[in-house]
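for the recovery benchmark. tokens below, seq after
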């Protein structure tokens, strides 16, 4: 399911995304587009919002999937991060990432690889030795992998005709859950451009349900552990950015569906 990470962070602010969602939600319900826009223009804007969401989720998924290599480090250093988004966690996350990247050099690949192992793998002696990136660990009583959460995510993938490809980890790995949101955002954008608003609305509902039932059900615990076990501002920033972005994105999806 993985795509190459985008080379630019062309991110709108969270406040702008919420405002766009409110405006687009009105155009779906009302027979005429708001603010003098034609319906086609409003649909294009919403499709672009979905493209932006897909790029952001794709970037996040890549950073959790495996260690940062030289190519990814170079791409990250070439990105333009927003200075203010309207979301305190997202802003802190971007600030910490930027703080690390602006002084990173070739040996930073090794430093980040060590911190990736320290943060997500740990000593492996029990379920409390690291920020294990599996939903089952945080939602099962004995903090074990391959539990009910994994079965639920696998069922969701099958229901949406998504295959795991060459993925070898459990389906409830945070990277795969973030990729699911990426893929559904891409489908939403395609449906909007095809003029299929009914399918687009179904995809948006699927994403909100998945964010609520899965990502937001365990990300607070995962990102809390990331901040505790990591030693670089890179992974501390990634934790804050992920938590803030998913929270804000769920609000955007709700604006589209309920606003």
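predicted aa per position
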């Amino acid at each position: 399911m993985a795509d190459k990470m985008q080379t630019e962070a062309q991110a709108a602010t969270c406040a702008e995304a919420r405002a766009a969602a409110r405006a687009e939600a009105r155009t779906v319900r009302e027979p005429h587009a708001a603010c003098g826009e034609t319906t086609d223009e409003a649909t294009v804007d919403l499709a672009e919002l979905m493209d932006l969401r897909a790029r952001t989720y794709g970037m996040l998924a890549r950073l959790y999937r495996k260690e940062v290599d030289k190519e990814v480090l170079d791409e990250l250093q070439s990105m333009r991060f927003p200075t203010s988004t309207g979301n305190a966690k997202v802003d802190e996350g971007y600030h910490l990432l930027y703080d690390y990247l602006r002084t990173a050099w070739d040996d930073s690949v090794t430093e980040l690889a060590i911190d990736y192992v320290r943060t997500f793998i740990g000593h492996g002696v029990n379920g409390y030795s690291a920020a294990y990136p599996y939903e089952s660990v945080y939602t099962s009583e004995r903090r074990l992998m391959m539990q009910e959460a994994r079965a639920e995510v696998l069922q969701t993938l099958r229901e949406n005709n998504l295959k795991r490809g060459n993925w070898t980890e459990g389906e409830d790995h945070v990277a795969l859950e973030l990729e699911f949101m990426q893929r559904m955002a891409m489908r939403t954008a395609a449906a909007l451009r095809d003029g299929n608003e009914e399918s687009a609305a179904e995809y948006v509902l699927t994403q909100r349900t998945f964010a609520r039932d899965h990502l937001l059900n365990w990300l607070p615990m995962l990102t809390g552990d990331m901040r505790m076990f990591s030693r670089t501002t890179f992974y501390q920033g990634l934790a804050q950015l992920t938590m803030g972005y998913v929270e804000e994105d769920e609000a955007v999806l709700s604006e589209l569906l309920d606003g």
